[in-house]
Specification:
5-stranded mixed sheet; 7-stranded mixed sheet; Ribosomal Protein S5, domain 2
Length: 293
């Protein structure tokens, strides 16, 4: 455990408005500056007494295809793209007031969040941001789906890699994407990468009454030939988006990470489990050092 830099908050409030992919409900997120050591707090202003939930792994609820946080009546859904933007833009302390449960789907990326946060500006705070340096390899998962957290190989900071493989018959080709996380790399390499699904997955979701307003123009929907009525922003946009999701889920650790994390076909549940294990390792290291001191 070490303090690597000073914390940041927003210089002024900003807003992002849209509709949730799953519920189709309209929602406005208002990002407010917050005091040092506040962390990321989601506030459900549409509910009595405006309950809140902190964006840490202890509040994660296992869900397929998305990340959900819950504490009492404060439930927020699809938070991974918001959290990725905050981590990538180094906004550590913020209150996010939500007018509904599900975050705006937008174009399936973090780009609108990054633009709003960039326009709001960043203010340096007087307390240091804690970080955790991965000192021993940690692997979770199984043979076909796993994540490996290892010590940093070059310099410091966080390097993430996602390895995508839907199999030889899927039009979403296998590929990987690797980047060192920084504000510049986040904006240029990750923020614009969009959510993607296969046509059969999209049809199955809509048959259950979900995502009724969503069309192939709102995200990437792949049939057997490629994206329907849309075009890729990057030739490797799909693994880039998975890396974006990975970063958002890792943000639930609640501190900066120093190391290399490689994910092979992982999803939100496995990503979130790693964030929880890193929080536990951080707490154990802190307890040991406190006893020695």
């Amino acid at each position: 455990m070490r303090a690597s830099r000073f914390q940041h908050t927003l210089s002024r409030p900003c807003q992002v408005t849209g509709r949730g992919y799953w519920t189709s409900q309209p929602i406005t997120l208002t990002f407010f500056p917050a005091a040092a050591d506040t962390g990321v707090q989601f506030v459900r202003t549409d509910l009595p007494k405006a309950p809140r939930v902190e964006a840490i792994a202890e509040h994660r609820v296992d869900m397929s295809l998305r990340t959900r946080l819950a504490k009492g009546s404060a439930v927020v859904d699809m938070v991974e793209h918001v959290l990725a933007a905050l981590y990538g833009m180094q906004i550590d302390n913020v209150e996010i007031h939500c007018t509904s449960c599900e975050m705006p789907g937008l174009d399936g990326s973090s780009h609108a969040y990054a633009l709003a946060l960039e326009a709001a500006g960043r203010t340096l705070q007087t307390k240091k941001r804690l970080s955790y340096t991965i000192e021993q390899p940690l692997r979770i998962g199984q043979d076909k789906q796993w994540i490996l957290a290892s010590p940093a190989t070059v310099g410091s900071g966080l390097v993430i890699e996602y390895q995508l493989d839907y199999g030889p018959t899927c039009s979403i080709g296998a590929g990987s994407f690797r980047t060192q996380v920084s504000e510049t790399n986040f904006i240029n390499d990750l923020a614009q990468a969009r959510t993607f699904v296969t046509l059969s997955e999209a049809q199955q979701l809509q048959s259950k009454g979900l995502a009724q307003h969503v069309t192939p123009r709102d995200l990437l929907v792949f049939d057997e030939t490629g994206p329907i009525d849309n075009s890729l922003r990057f030739s490797d946009e799909c693994p880039r988006h998975k890396a974006l999701d990975l970063l958002g889920d890792l943000a639930l650790a609640g501190f900066d990470l120093v190391g290399t994390i490689v994910a092979h076909r992982s999803g939100h549940q496995l990503n979130g489990r790693l964030a929880q294990l890193l929080r536990e390792a951080f707490a154990q290291q802190h307890e040991i050092k406190s006893r020695v001191a």
